[in-house]
Amino acid sequence: MERKLRRSRDNRVLAGVCGGLGNFMGIDPVVIRIAVVLLTFFAGMSLWVYIIMWLLIPEE
Prior knowledge:
Distance between the termini: 16 Å
Number of helices: 3
Low-confidence stretches: none
């Protein structure tokens, strides 16, 4: 079965990006959400990456 990166409709908090990444990589989306929040506070760039992914990754 071919896995495709898609934003999640079921496992979403904001746009489904973290839920889709979690499904694609086979890990819990909460881990990705925590990483995004930490990187946003400490690096600032992950917010822009999240917005870009929101625009580029199609919804399932």
